[in-house]
Amino acid sequence: MASRRSTQRGLTARERKFIRGRAQGLSLREAAIRAGYSRSVARSKASDILRRPLVQSALTDALARQRVTLAKLVRPIADALKANVVTTFQGRAVESDIPDHRTRLEAAELAISLHGGLPKQVELPPLPQEPLTVIFEAPDGTTTGIRLG
């Protein structure tokens, strides 16, 4: 890992402020605004700043000094991928066994975007000419088939 002093060299004052903001948990846009960029260009400037290897290295160092690891960053996403519906009963929150599909989908989309996203164009095979049967398996092992077409 590069030393803090050598990493800080070559960074502009705005980049250092941006890194401090991100290390404190600010969004990309908010960190850029606090670093001195206007609201109208903050998001694009944040992306530009993060492309610089020196900035990436300095941000990694700043997070490491705060003991922020990749595992700590990814844990909430992993937890959300297993989320269940929470309801209230007599004023208390009760977690059910029913999957919270919205939360799980949002977590999956976030994980995919952090990993580089989905391809912009997807080539699909032609639809089959014969009817299609979709089979669903319930947690108890029973199956149900639905014939399409």
Structure description:
The chain is an alpha+beta fold and 149 residues long. It folds into two domains: 65 residues, Arc Repressor Mutant, subunit A, CATH 1.10.10; 43 residues, no CATH class. It has seven helices and four strands, in the order H-H-H-H-H-H-E-E-H-E-E. The chain has a two-stranded antiparallel ribbon. A two-stranded antiparallel sheet has the order 3-4. It is elongated and about 65 Å long. The protein starts with a helix and ends with a strand. The N terminus is likely disordered.
On the 0 to 100 scale, the average pLDDT is 82
Total helices: the number is 7
Low-confidence regions: 1-7
Please tell me the total number of domains: 2
CATH topology assignment of the largest domain: Arc Repressor Mutant, subunit A
CATH architecture heading of the largest domain = Orthogonal Bundle
Question: Major sheet: size, sense and barrel closure?
Answer: 2 strands, antiparallel
How would you describe the shape? Answer: elongated
Rounded to the nearest angstrom, the distance between the terminal CA atoms is 59 Å
- The total beta strand count reads 4
Report strand %. 15-25%
Helix content: 40-55%
Spell the H/E element sequence.
HHHHHHEEHEE
C-alpha-based Rg, rounded:
23 Å
- Taking strands numbered 1, 2, ... along the chain, how are they ordered across the largest sheet? 1-2
Q: Give the class-level CATH name of the largest domain.
A: Mainly Alpha
The chain-level structural class is alpha+beta
